[in-house]
Amino acid sequence: MNIKKKKRQIAENRVGYLAIEVEKSLKDNHNLAEIQAKQAREFSKKFNIKSGFSQRMLFCHKCKRFIVPGFNSRIRLSKIRKSVNITCLCCGFTYRKMINKSQTYI
Ligand SMILES: [Zn+2]
Q1: How far is the CA of 100 from the centre of ligand 1 (A)?
Q2: pLDDT digits (tens, 9 = 90+) for 83-103
């Protein structure tokens, strides 16, 4: 294994560990959770680690701040567009995640 792959593997472990720590510190200290989330995002950007939708929706697409559903973001379902609307309450930007047709019909 070359050095670049090893660095990426270490960074993936750190991002995973930070994601767990963010969940723990959200209940007590929001500022600490924001710092940890920012650090995890910087790691994933630096080492080109892809994160899933559940992790990506925790960051605003416009102001890039850490947003928590129910605390400083609002999540709603749209019947007209068939989408999930995520609104950042810091800057007011609304991000729409479209739902596939196969997921809407049962
Ligand atoms: Zn925002």
Answers
A1: 25
A2: 999 999 999 999 998 887 666
Per the structure, how many domains does the chain have? 2
Distance 58 CA to ligand 1 centre (A): 11
Amino acid at 62: K
Ligand 1 centroid–CA 45 distance in Å is 19
Q: How far is CA 6 from CA 3, 9, 38, 48, 95, in A?
A: 5, 5, 22, 13, 35
The residue segments making up the domain with residue 75 are 52-106
pLDDT digits (tens, 9 = 90+) for 24-83: 888 888 899 999 999 999 989 999 988 888 888 889 999 999 998 888 899 999 988 889
